Amino acid sequence: MQQHSTLRLAARIAWTDFSLRFKRTKLGIIWGVLNPFFMFMVLFVVLTRFRAAHSEHLFIPSLLIGLLTWELFSDATTLAAANILQKRGIVRAIPFPLISLPLASVFQTTAVFLTSFVILLAVLPFVSVSFHWIQFLFIIPFASLLLLTFAVACFVSIATAFYPDTVHIWRWFLRVGFFISPVFYTTQLLLPENRPWFMLNPIARILETARATLLFHQAVWPDLTLIFVITLAAATLGFIAFQKYSSAIRDRL
Amino acid sequence: MKAVEVHNLTKVFVPHNSWPWSKNFPVTTALQDVSFSLEQGKTLGIMGANGSGKSTLLRILAGILQPTKGTVSTTGNVAAVIDMSACFHNDLTVQDNIALYSELSGAGKVLRSQSADIISFAELETYERRPLRELSRGMKTRLVFSTVIRVPADIYLFDEAFSGGDERFKKRAQDRIKKLQTEGKTLVMASHRPVFLKQVASLGLVLDQGRLAFYGPLAEAIPPYRKLLGI
Q1: Closest CA in chain B for residue A21
Q2: Which residues are B20's β-sheet partners?
Q3: pTM (two decimals)
Q4: Does the ipTM exceed 0.85?
Q5: What is the CB neighbour count within 10 angstroms for residue B129?
Q6: How distant is the alpha carbon of residue A182 from its chain centre?
Q7: Chain B CB contacts of A96 below 8 Å
Q8: Which chain A residues are closer than 8 Å to B86 by Cβ?
Q9: Tens digit of pLDDT for each residue in A114-163?
Q10: Residue-range definition of the domain harbouring residue B108
């Protein structure tokens, strides 16, 4: 068999899919930057203009971090499910590491996330968030988010290959997930007795640590360590499961 | 030295819409107890009616599918053209398609460095930056063939690799195949056209509903193949 570089292959698939989205448009991949930019600016302007007088401190950047994070997780896992079905032709035609498909979904959505994130960083000084070295620790919740997204993308891909209905079922899971994750609220708003239950959701921990480092300049090391270890374990499990089922996936497709 | 060894190969497919709790789903046996071996440097032509298991056999040899029972071993790298259209995207340019296939095939560096040669062999210099959808079927066939034969491999697998190409291209492709043969490469080609196989292969294998109906010299494989088709 040929020697594949899985990461390079995943990057190539991600780039191909990304550029194909804008292939027949005049502006081409510039839309890839303009879309998140406009979405972000609309959210920012609307929220700044209409926010409630009693809303908590740093509500707007908190909400933007929540939405960006959720969008990455949601888009990547949905794309992974769609990819495994849409690329069945390639899967049946050429031997290549299948793991590059969920990986490509994560890469593609990460590129969009990073575009929006750069804009968020530029906006932070305007909402009274000053620069602090602790903000660099955002890399930990961000890495955890990528690991978790990859893990879930692997499991959703396996499930979709075996039961294509998963594509539709997963959308419902995401809808529920959106509300039970602190995307548009923070866990401070929850009743204290309910908070530990909410924190079992890894997305909740990722969001809380991301907000703590970026907005409040707080590095809660036990939380940062815990979420990184948990998501690393999840990604490893997802990878092992995907590799184990790879040949069965090819059979099913 | 054996390049390909297949022993009691059986491949069974489970229907893709079967539920996990269902035990009585009908399975499809694509290949049953197929055994043969192929010496390095030989060219084998696989024949059989539609649904006889030719493509499944090639997919297993390529490592895309795993056998349900039996063993398959290949010596060296394998390059395959199983479903020509699948790996090439109509909205991508000729150049982008070569780049994508380079990564998919695992021969990224080699193919990227030979991009100009690939385009030249396919006679697509003027279409280099044009999307594939602007190319005719024959042009696409030329591109796919030109790309795959550049993958450095010891075994090449082709499934109806020349359908759609014109006579001029078929002649050039045959010359290229002869070059691969003189380099000692092992070739396995599935085709519905015994006349074509006669020109390039020395051995023939006939499949009938997943079972091995004949394996031996190509000239002797054609009569049982025609008999199977009732022609």
Answers
A1: B91
A2: none
A3: 0.86
A4: no
A5: 9
A6: 15
A7: 104-106
A8: 89-90, 92-94
A9: 988 998 888 888 878 888 899 999 999 999 999 999 999 999 999 999 88
A10: 40-67+76-229
